[in-house]
Amino acid sequence: MKTIRNNWKVALIVAAGIVAVILLCVFGVQSSQNRAFALEEQVYTADSDIKVQEKRRVDLVYNLADCVKQYDKYEAETLTAIVEGRGSTGDIENVTTAITAVSEAYPELKSNENYKELMNELSITENLIAEYRSNYNKQVKEYNRYIRKFPTRVFLDVLGYEIQNYTYLDYDAPVDAPQNLFGE
């Protein structure tokens, strides 16, 4: 009777040990997968941040082009009105009157300030894009390191996690900077 009781205890301890090891493996795999989920989500978020800033850049470029067109139109109209005012008579008094009329007809539109502000915003956006690309590459690096580590690699390979790619910029720009752009 004692041997059956002792065998029963041993069998129960072995079964509890096996269940504990199985649970430990399941929780270990799930923990690895949860960490991979979090890192993968950080990579996707970093990629999305880049796309948002690139969209902002495109919008700013269109706004900048429109602002420059409007400013050029304003300047052209103003100069045309001044030249016409000068051409009608040689009298300086008439020129002054024409300039005053033009300035009253065309109040300061602040286009020049809008142009400067858009240029500043474009510069800020370019800096943000560079920063977000750097952040993306850091997130990819952290993710790739994690999924390549042992024993995590064994579980995550089975679950289908793959290495992410870095963002590389290749503009095919010439090696030498252009010289004598305005010709002398």
UniProtKB/TrEMBL annotation:
Pfam family, one: LemA
Coiled coil (residue ranges): none
Keywords, sorted A to Z: Membrane, Transmembrane, Transmembrane helix
Cellular component, GO annotation: membrane
Membrane topology: Single-pass membrane protein
Localisation: Membrane
Cleaved signal peptide residues: none
Tree of life domain: Bacteria
Family: Belongs to the LemA family.
Listed name of the protein: LemA family protein
Highest classification ranks of the organism: Bacteria, Bacillati, Bacillota, Clostridia, Lachnospirales
